[in-house]
Specification:
The chain has 264 residues and is an alpha+beta fold. It is built from eleven helices and six strands. α2 runs antiparallel to α9.
Length: 264
Amino acid sequence: MEFIDVLFGRRTTNGPFLPDPVSDSHQQLLIKAAASAPSQFNSQPWRFVVIEHRETIEGIARISGVSMTQVISEGSFFERYKRHFRFSAEEMAEHRSGMYFDKLPKALRPFTKAVFTPAGVQAMRMLRVPHTLGEENRKLVQGSPIVLGVMLDRRDREAHELADFYCQFSLGAAMENVWLTTCELGMGIQFISFPMEAPGRWQKLIELLEVPDDLELMALYRLGYVPEQSDRPAIDWSSRERRPPSQFVFRETCRSPQQGWDQA
């Protein structure tokens, strides 16, 4: 693939992967791509744990599924991120950002607006919607051929406030390299985020992976090969809509939005 095709073809994989194991050569290439990212003073603060053992992945999947059930049941998740939820084409056209839920299971459709209200959250609990979503999440993570744990060296982060920023910035660059490389390899990738939203669940992952005190677990990703054709998942946590340049680019000073690029 040409680089520009990879760049604009990048996707988040919200559906299942093929059951095929990820080849050792591809695993090595992903890590090599991560390690080629820029870092302040060439500090290379990132560390990775590559997980293939089914028992460990099943443990991660259980924690992820339970976390999703907990977070959705509490209702705090929707309140926290409601500014990014879109439930109509009109909303998406207005904002050109966020998550557009144009495809939902029949049981969830009545809650598209009520999800932000205590009554709506209570109704979802009664219908066991959080449990259903958590179980779907567990199955999705469990079916992943590999999980990648991403860590940072605490010594680099704790040196001073700017060092912490540099480390996190560098880690973002490293993971973008990994993400783009998956496109070249016919693979997909998705952030396993819900354990970070549920108090106490992230610590269980740290213990499961035996992360030492001098490292900090920053993120988990599931990876695998993607089918040539696949149906969209029941709940699609992705959107290809992007803001036009006039909404986020300025010319010379921040008082002057960029003009003339929106149709390019």
